[in-house]
């Protein structure tokens, strides 16, 4: 267990250059997948889109082969919260699609996720996605020099709880650097002013996960990967890799 107040790793300018490059590739993957995701498209085809971006940018995937994961993206649909495996599943009008993916440049990682509606959808689905994005923004804005790790989770939880949504206890954001998942855990709940201090050069993956039904329970499917909501309600998943800059947060996984 990391002791309270222990320092978090800080990245050098050279390391941040490579993390920015990896993050840019992830953002390009997101942009290409968003453009391709529509009714009638198979989730496996979206994985192919992501592979093309990686190849074009001479980057490698940090998802493919991770503990045996068979793809470069996670494609989770409707009640699937995270870790959905791309397959022959065909997206239909009104689906809620969450995509998580990452890239490696010179040994340094980027990781990000987004949720989107497929075609026209319900106001309830759009509200869930919009709330997830607001929770992510709140967590990011808490990443200021002199703040604390607990500030991030507190900011996220405030948005999620006010909206009446649930969030799983066992899945959260994380440190990131030369591995996709590093210490510390970046919880989606927290107490302001608690935990290690946020200093310039710290990079974290901030990762809200929302369950529309208001519960916190999830379970894993027989494929050993896909995590679904216990009540069958919709789920949304968003994430960015974020640097604590000298004057505030910098999102590394956007164009």
CATH H-level superfamily title:
Creatinase/methionine aminopeptidase superfamily
β-strand percent reads 15-25%
Taken in chain order, the helices and strands follow as: HHEEEEHHEEEEEEEEE
Could you say what the CATH architecture is? Alpha-Beta Complex
What would you call the shape? globular
Which regions contain 5 or more consecutive residues with pLDDT less than 50?
1-5
Mean pLDDT: 97
Query: Helix content range of the residues, please?
Result: 25-40%
CATH third-tier fold name: Creatine Amidinohydrolase
Any idea what the radius of gyration is? 17 Å
- In DSSP terms (H or I, runs of 4 or more residues), the helix count works out at 4
The CATH class assignment is Alpha Beta
Structure commentary:
With 255 residues, the protein is of the alpha+beta class. The protein has one domain (13-251): Creatinase/methionine aminopeptidase superfamily (Creatine Amidinohydrolase), CATH 3.90.230. Helix content is 28%, strand content 24%. The chain has helices at 13-36, 43-56, 123-141, 149-163; strands at 73-77, 80-82, 96-105, 108-117, 173-175, 182-186, 203-206, 209-211, 218-220, 227-229, 235-237, 240-245, 248-251. The strands form 4 sheets. Strands 6-5-7-12-13 form a 5-stranded antiparallel β-sheet. α1 (13-36) runs antiparallel to α2 and α3 (123-141) packs antiparallel against α4 (149-163). The longest helix is centred in the N-terminal third of the chain and has 24 residues, at 13-36. The radius of gyration is 17 Å and the shape is globular. The termini are far apart.
């Amino acid at each position: 267990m990391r002791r309270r107040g222990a320092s978090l790793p800080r990245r050098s300018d050279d390391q941040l250059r490579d993390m920015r490059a990896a993050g840019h590739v992830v953002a390009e993957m997101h942009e290409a997948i968003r453009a391709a995701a529509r009714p009638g498209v198979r989730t496996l085809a979206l994985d192919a889109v992501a592979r093309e971006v990686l190849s074009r940018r001479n980057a490698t995937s940090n998802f493919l082969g991770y503990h045996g994961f068979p793809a470069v993206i996670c494609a989770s649909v409707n009640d699937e919260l995270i870790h959905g495996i791309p397959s022959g599943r065909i997206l239909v009008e009104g689906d809620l699609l969450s995509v998580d993916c990452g890239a490696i440049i010179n040994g340094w990682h980027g990781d990000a996720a987004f949720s989107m509606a497929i075609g026209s959808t319900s106001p309830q689905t759009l509200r869930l996605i919009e709330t997830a994005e607001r929770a992510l923004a709140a967590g990011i804005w808490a990443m200021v020099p002199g703040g604390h790790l607990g500030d991030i989770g507190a900011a996220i939880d405030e948005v999620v709880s006010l909206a009446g949504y649930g969030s799983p206890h066992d899945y959260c954001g994380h440190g990131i650097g030369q591995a996709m998942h590093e210490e510390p855990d970046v919880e989606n709940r927290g107490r302001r002013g608690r935990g290690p201090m946020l200093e310039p050069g710290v990079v974290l993956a901030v990762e809200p996960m929302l369950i529309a039904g208001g519960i916190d329970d999830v379970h894993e499917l027989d494929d050993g990967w896909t995590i679904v909501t216990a009540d069958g309600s919709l789920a949304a998943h968003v994430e960015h890799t974020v640097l604590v800059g000298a004057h505030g947060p910098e999102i590394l996984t956007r164009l």
